[in-house]
Amino acid sequence: MSALLDDARVKEILAADRAHVWHPYTPMDEWRETHDAIVVAGALGPHLLLADGRRLLDGNGSWWVSTLGHNHPRLIAALEKQARKLCHVSLAGVVHEAAALCARELAAVMPPSLDQVFFSDDGSTAIEAAVKMAVQAHHQTGKPKKTRFVALDGAFHGETIGATSLGGVEVFRRPFGGVVFDCVHVPSPAGDDVACAPAWGEAFDAIAELIEREHETLAGVVLEPIVQGASGMRVYAPAYLRAVRDLCTKYDVTMIVDEVFTGYGRLGVMWAFELAEIVPDIVCVAKGFTGGVLPMAATVACRSLLEAFSGGRSRSFLYGHSFCGNPLGAAIAREVLAIYREEPIVAGVAERHALIEAAFARLRDGAITSRLVRDVRAIGSIGAADLRDSTSGYTAGIGWRVFQEARTRGAYLRPLGNVVYVAPALNIPLDDLRTLLGILEESVEAVARAV
Ligand SMILES: *Cc1c(COP(=O)(O)O)cnc(C)c1O
């Protein structure tokens, strides 16, 4: 085990970080005081390579983006090849190969009616574009009063003010209560355990009643399909999505499905909405869109929605980021889709699911671990366990104790409050997955013994 960076260099990096970097979702005062940092010098496949030469298994694919493992040689090659030709050009009145073919290839893996691709930068802006598309489309088809949205309690759709408006995790919204737009949050159908998810009837009654009563002012419903990731990997029944689809159609409310986390095979199908056998009006993709190599995203709309934007320049969609259609991102996104066509990435989820499901069942049933573990669930390549804690939710501390145990054993398992989970690269080698799950089990057991 030889260091990737020498001590002097690591010291310099740490000093620069401590003085200047404001980290996301991080209590900065504590962070700067302890500065117990993981210094990553590289990454390969399922591993993060640390400066001191140790490796950490990346239990959550670096915040769910690294769906094909780190530094996939084909994605690096696609990036290099594109960089030599064209790094960037605006997409306003310009056509380039990477964006054009990327849009066609993305449309080819969507249902036939979803074939209009609008590029943006990340999951948040893909949502932002979808929301604006829905409002402007209603505005231009004689329904200007349709400006409000419906989202689920516990929803997470990103970080911009628009996406925050849709968010239903209370701690993330609280400071912004005065600036968010009008979004009605309805009870979530999702539960702690896959088996109890069918209890979605009451949640459906709530959204049905709302839409029936207020559809004249409702522009759209925005949903994470089947799994609510950020609120703790909560799962709900596909039948709920199907029922909401029917409501949206009946009352002309745009159905926006956020596949930023669930898309690209995470649940063992290319898109989670396939499990419900529905076709949304708009689908947002990011994260796995570039296999986590570059920030880029797409909002895919049905052709009929585009029709609302015809009739002159003032009726065109008034939206577009500087990096819209970025050639580097688009070239990588094309290579990602090529890998999905040529390798059994989605089909390979089933085997991994079996290992994940068994490991979480052992956590629930183990003589020691069951003292700490309240509920478990596994779907696709996601496994999650709710830990008992005096405080629950995002700010709970117990998950961090598991995180520290896992870190010393060689895995990166950042928790969601009292929920510890795995969501590794979809193609993680089976042996590495076994190692990751073994570390998880040992770490939970170590904490269970100590509490
Ligand atoms: C991560 C995520 C987003 C936001 O994506 P960013 O790329 O972080 O802006 C939106 N929706 C869901 C479901 C996500 O998991």
How would you describe the overall organization of this protein?
- By secondary structure, the chain is an alpha/beta fold.
- The chain has two domains: 38-67 and 346-450, Aspartate Aminotransferase, domain 1; 75-342, Type I PLP-dependent aspartate aminotransferase-like (Major domain) (Aspartate Aminotransferase, domain 2), CATH 3.40.640.
- It has 15 helices and 16 strands.
- The chain has helices at residues 7-20, 28-34, 61-64, 73-85, 97-108, 123-139, 161-166, 170-173, 201-214, 238-251, 303-307, 327-342, 349-365, 398-409, 430-450, and strands at residues 40-44, 47-50, 55-58, 114-120, 148-152, 183-186, 218-223, 227-228, 234-235, 254-258, 282-285, 297-302, 373-379, 382-387, 411-412, 419-422.
- It has a seven-stranded mixed β-sheet with strand order 4-12-11-10-7-5-6, sandwiched between helices. Strands 1-2-3-15 form a four-stranded mixed β-sheet. Strands 13-14-16 form a three-stranded antiparallel β-sheet.
- It is globular and about 65 Å long.
- The two termini are 34 Å apart.
- The model has no long low-confidence stretch (mean pLDDT 95).
- It binds pyridoxal-5'-phosphate (PLP).
- The site of pyridoxal-5'-phosphate has 14 residues, from helix 6.
Mind telling me the CATH class of the largest domain?
Answer: Alpha Beta
By DSSP (H or I, 4+ residues per run), the number of helices equals 15
Instruction: Work out the strand percent.
Output: 15-25%
Q: State the share of residues found in helices, binned by percent.
A: 25-40%
Query: What is the overall pLDDT average?
Result: 95
Query: How far is it from the N-terminal to the C-terminal residue, by CA?
Result: 34 Å
Do you know the CATH architecture of the largest domain?
Answer: 3-Layer(aba) Sandwich
Number of extended strands:
16
Describe the biggest sheet? Answer: 7 strands, mixed
The Cα radius of gyration reads: 22 Å
Task: Spell out which ligands are present.
Answer: pyridoxal-5'-phosphate
Shape: globular
Main structural class: alpha/beta
Output the strand order for the largest sheet: 4-12-11-10-7-5-6
Task: Report the CATH superfamily of the largest domain.
Answer: Type I PLP-dependent aspartate aminotransferase-like (Major domain)
Using the coordinates shown, work out and report the CATH topology of the largest domain.
Aspartate Aminotransferase, domain 2
Q: Low-confidence spans: pLDDT under 50, at least 5 residues?
A: none
The total number of structural domains is: 2
